[in-house]
Specification:
The structure holds three protein chains of three kinds.
Chain A: H1 3-19, H2 24-40, H3 42-57, H4 64-77, H5 80-92, H6 98-111, H7 117-134, H8 139-150, H9 152-155, H10 160-169, H11 173-179, H12 181-201, H13 214-240, H14 245-262, H15 268-302, H16 304-314, H17 318-336, H18 339-356, H19 361-376, H20 383-391, H21 397-420, H22 423-432
Helix pairs in contact in A: 1-2, 1-15, 2-3, 2-15, 3-15, 4-14, 4-15, 5-6, 5-13, 6-7, 6-8, 6-12, 7-8, 7-20, 8-12, 8-20, 8-21, 10-15, 10-18, 10-19, 11-22, 12-21, 13-14, 16-18, 17-18, 17-19, 18-19, 19-21, 20-21
Chain B: E1 2-6, H1 14-30, E2 36-40, H2 52-58, E3 63-66, H3 93-98, E4 110-117, E5 121-125, E6 140-142, H4 146-154, E7 158-160, H5 167-172, E8 178-182, H6 185-188, E9 197-200, E10 208-214, H7 215-219, H8 223-257, E11 262-265, H9 268-291, H10 296-304
Parallel strand pairs in B: 1-2, 1-3, 6-7, 6-8, 9-11
Antiparallel strand pairs in B: 3-10, 4-10, 5-8, 5-9
Helix pairs in contact in B: 1-8, 4-9
Chain C: H1 18-51, H2 59-72, H3 75-80, H4 95-130, H5 143-170
Helix pairs in contact in C: 1-2, 2-5, 4-5
Classes of the chains: A mainly alpha, B alpha/beta, C mainly alpha.
Bound molecules: sodium ion (2 copies).
One sodium ion binds near residues 334, 335 and 338 of chain A.
Chain lengths: ~425, ~300, ~180
């Protein structure tokens, strides 16, 4: 058997393992391990596993993962997310569809402390959905805004999506984080525009919120200010180069913890829940990282990605033709898969092809993350939709998927703009370095 | 038998053409094509320099390119040549090869094929020129190793450790004032963009590169094949050394040609002050290593041989 | 906080028995201690560098090594609660028996891989002791961290093995 056919066999085996419900990280580890065994022998496979496990688990740059997760978890259990939503509500609640727009803004703000789309949707959804119910919002608009808004968690830094992409492609975590800022803000604006258009066409769908006096607006803003301050310090610190991403994560988590302790918002039970969640999520992510670290050497030894890339190059589609194919592949995959699993399965294969086509590695990171996020709200399997369903149990799934559709198109517009104007993604990281 | 050689440097790196290709050709010629080398560049067999030595020990690859400095506790004796003034970084490659056998006790887990020195770590500063020893006082300087850190401390600076890839950002933003690293980093890590001054002239720390081979992989070869591999290794050390010297010279030339950049060559008087300051450190490190029961002094004498 | 729906809690079987719960919680607590050390070291490292202009030389070595128990000791808890990311698209299509056999097979493979990782880590522990492998700046010994890695992967393997036994006890019906 040639190395190349062993590579194909490996990919096939991985899909079988995934169908058999093996965790993604373990499936990659298994294929990488047994594949290396076939190519290089048992000694080499064992050595690869222990060396990569040790070196990735003890990789200094990956410390951003537990620290940023801790920051988001503490902000969530301490109720700071409610403060963010209330401030957004005070300022934009009076506009058409104001509560839905406030949910999107709340999601955007919480995204800046949390690296996870699901966590963002859960945290803001728990606060915002009952409010919108109270104001008789259409269920489609309410749940759609939260499910879509949650996807900002991956795009606005910090983001576990960008961290995993950075690991898989050996790009800079800091640059990837920075590249997500403008697209994240653009998408937030597009979501709010979507809410406004829906509410203007059908005022019943998104009634205006109550009048809030200016003093109360300021008060709500002030209550949210400390957390916004932490966001500005940690994310702004990366941009200015005052902190490395790891240090920004440490400072962010430390400051949120101190705030939570000083305001008495943290007790033993919420605190240990936040910490337990943090270490388990960290372990979950690192199993994927270890799996990818063992799979990648195997794949490159089989020459599989390189050959696929060559094949696509010789088809004569040109870079944008290939990009189009990849986007279509993502849209189809996005129906059934989403989140980290999809990122991990696709990037090792698509990334080398995109690099051969001369695209920017950071820019493709943004494109891949947006595609992953579209998958999170694409039926029939959409993680964020399921999460919102988990909070709003009496809303039928079909209503949520219908409600999310306009936001899906907003994401498509965002993606289109980023393809036409790559600078949206690249201007900040390029200004930084 | 095809030996897998792992290097974490990009596939475009000159080591591939200048070092590995000739080495593979020599081995293949000497063994009638029975033993060949295939180089995996760009960390294809696992990324990053830090774990390279372990990849050879455990057998991820048969041969790896690595820096002994990343696993310093394993190579106290090998790393003696990184101390200022122990070797002449340009002219002593033959002496390193001749004395290589003295290092055998440190290579029980792998087989040492080639050892050569990098060009010396000079002082890069972002905005503060170092013209005399006092200029270094209190400056935060990134150092490549513990020994280099001790030297820098003796000169009055404040050592910071960070990976080479982070120097650019740290120097640009003032997290550090400068870095002690070899001249080729001006181009390799694009440090010329953030460096205004480079100070040279004093005896300073160097770093080493080596090619090491998995023990079992080596023992599986016949005696003649082993001999061929070891011979090719020595030539690889010579070729590697020559290539690195060339790249370093070229980087220096380019830097001098750039507008607003200055290469500061210390006066003899200042060189003497720097060397006097680092002298006790050298003695201290040699004594420390000697105290662990290793013939450190004998090795240093053999390298110096004056 | 994971990218997973809240797992329906099945708190039955060997994998959730009292001694196992207790062991998993102990490991998680150790992992939490490691997290606290990482947090304090990064936070204090930044403060000392900017406020006192005195970087802590080698603090990154502590952070790196402590990350090993942080990650490895939490693997078992994550497995016990089924929180490792899976692709669940095909769950419906492979049927009760497909799910049952798939769950057993994927755990069996996991046990084998984690057994090998435990064994290799243990061998590395011995080597690190024999050759006195230390970190570069602070000269911290490596062997305890290979030990913690062995402990974490062994605990993960044990949880998976117990889950296999639980699966056989409940049979394919347990996978409805
Ligand atoms: Na985020
Ligand atoms: Na989907």
């Amino acid at each position: 058997m040639t190395d190349f056919s062993i590579g194909l066999l490996g990919i096939g085996a991985m899909f079988v393992l995934l169908i058999l419900r093996m965790p993604v990280g373990m499936a990659m580890l298994a294929v990488g391990f047994f594949g290396t065994w076939m190519l290089n022998g048992f000694r080499s496979a064992n050595a690869l596993m222990v060396t990569e496990a040790f070196s990735h688990v003890s990789n200094y740059n990956l410390t951003v993962i537990p620290l940023f997760i801790l920051m988001g978890n503490i902000a969530s259990v301490a109720g700071f997310s409610r403060g963010l939503y209330e401030a957004a509500f005070a300022w934009v609640g009076r506009a058409p569809g104001g509560l839905a727009s406030a949910s999107v803004l709340g999601c955007a703000a919480f995204s800046a402390v949390s690296g996870s789309s699901v966590a963002t949707a859960v945290t803001i959804g728990k606060v915002a959905l009952p409010e919108m119910e109270r104001f008789n919002y259409s269920r489609g608009l309410a749940t759609g805004a939260v499910a879509a808004g949650g996807t900002l968690g991956f795009l606005i830094p910090p983001s576990t999506g960008f961290v995993i992409y950075a690991i898989l492609t050996e790009q800079s975590i800091g640059q990837l984080f920075m590249s997500g800022i403008l697209p994240g803000l653009l998408l937030t604006a597009l979501f709010i525009a979507t809410v406004t258009i829906i509410s203007l066409r059908n005022p019943e769908a998104g009634p205006r919120g109550a009048y809030i006096p200016f003093s109360e607006k300021m008060a709500a803003g002030l209550r949210a200010a400390p957390l916004l301050g932490v966001i500005i310090i940690s994310i702004g610190g990366i941009y200015l180069g005052v902190f490395t991403p790891v240090e920004a994560a440490g400072i962010g988590a430390g400051l949120v913890l101190i705030m939570a302790l000083f305001t008495g918002k943290l007790n033993w039970s919420t605190g240990s829940k936040a910490v337990g969640d943090t270490v388990r999520t960290t372990a979950m992510l690192f199993l994927i990282i270890i799996g990818a670290a063992v799979l990648n050497p195997f794949l490159s030894m089989t020459q599989l990605p390189a050959r696929l890339g060559e094949a696509m190059t010789t088809m004569g589609l040109g870079p944008y033709g290939v990009l189009f194919l990849i986007v279509v592949a993502y849209l189809i995959l996005g129906m059934f898969m989403d989140g980290l699993a999809m990122l991990v399965v696709t990037v090792p294969i698509f990334y080398p092809i995109m690099m051969q086509m001369g695209f920017d590695p950071i820019w493709f990171g943004v494109v891949a993350v947006i595609m992953i996020e579209m998958g999170m709200i694409t039926p029939p399997v959409g993680m964020n939709v399921f999460v919102v369903k988990g909070i709003a149990r009496d809303v039928p799934m079909s209503t949520i998927f219908k409600g999310v559709l306009p936001f899906w198109f907003a994401m498509a517009v965002c993606l289109f703009l980023i393809v036409i104007f790559p600078q949206i993604a690249l201007v900040i990281p390029q200004a930084m370095f | 038998k095809e030996l897998k050689l792992a290097d974490f440097q990009p596939p475009t790196h000159f080591a591939l053409e200048r070092v590995y290709k000739p080495m593979g050709d020599a081995i293949s010629a000497a063994t009638n094509g029975e033993v060949t080398i295939k180089a995996y560049m760009g960390g294809e067999l696992g990324p990053g320099p830090a774990e390279q030595y372990n990849r050879a020990v455990d057998g991820v690859a048969d041969i790896v390119f690595a820096l002994p400095g990343y696993t310093a506790s394993t190579f106290p004796m090998t790393l003696l040549s990184e101390l200022p003034g122990v070797i002449d970084p340009i002219n002593d490659i033959e002496r390193i090869i001749e004395t290589q056998e003295m290092l055998d006790p440190e290579y029980r887990r792998v087989k040492l094929l080639a050892l050569w020195n990098n060009q010396p770590g000079v002082l890069f500063t972002a905005s503060k020129p170092i013209r005399k020893l006092e200029d270094l006082k209190g400056l935060k300087i990134r150092v490549p190793s513990r020994n280099a850190g001790l030297v820098l401390e003796a000169w009055g600076g404040s050592p910071v450790s960070m990976p080479a890839t982070e120097i650019y950002n740290a120097m640009q933003t003032g997290v550090i004032d400068g870095a002690m690293i070899d001249m080729s980093a001006l181009t390799a890590f694009r440090l010329a963009e953030v460096t205004k001054y480079v100070t040279v002239g004093m005896d300073t720390a160097t770093s080493q590169f080596f090619l090491v081979m998995n023990r079992d992989s080596f023992n599986e070869l016949t005696e003649d094949q082993q001999k061929a591999v070891l011979e090719a290794g020595k030539d690889a050390a010579r070729n590697g050394h020559a290539a690195w010297v060339e790249v370093s010279d070229k980087a220096q030339e380019e830097f001098v040609g750039m507008e607003g950049k200055e290469l500061i060559s210390l006066s003899d008087e200042e060189v003497a002050k720097f060397n006097a300051a680092s002298e006790p450190v050298i003695e201290k490190v040699i004594a420390e290593v000697e105290a662990t029961g290793v013939p450190a002094r004998a090795y240093v004498e053999a390298l110096k041989n004056d | 906080m994971t990218d997973l729906p809240p797992a329906t809690e099945r708190k039955q079987g060997l994998a959730h028995s009292t001694p196992v719960e207790w062991a998993v919680r102990s490991l998680t607590s150790l992992s939490a201690v490691a997290l606290a050390i990482v947090l304090v070291m990064t936070f204090v490292g930044v403060i000392t560098r900017y406020v006192f202009n005195a970087p802590i030389l080698g603090s990154n070595e502590v952070i790196q090594l402590v990350s090993i128990p942080l990650v490895m000791l939490a693997l078992a808890a994550t497995a016990q609660r089924d929180e490792h990311v899976r692709v669940d698209v095909f769950d419906e299509h492979i049927g009760r028996w497909g799910r049952f056999l798939g769950d057993i097979f994927s755990r069996a493979v996991g046990v084998y891989l984690m057994y090998l990782l435990t064994w290799r880590s243990w061998v590395k522990l011995g080597e690190a002791l024999e050759y006195n492998d230390l970190s570069n700046m602070l000269r911290l010994p490596f062997w305890p961290f290979y030990g913690l890695m062995a402990l974490g992967s062994a605990a993960y393997a044990v949880i998976l093995a117990l889950q296999i036994i639980d699966l056989f006890r409940t049979g394919a019906r347990g996978r409805d």
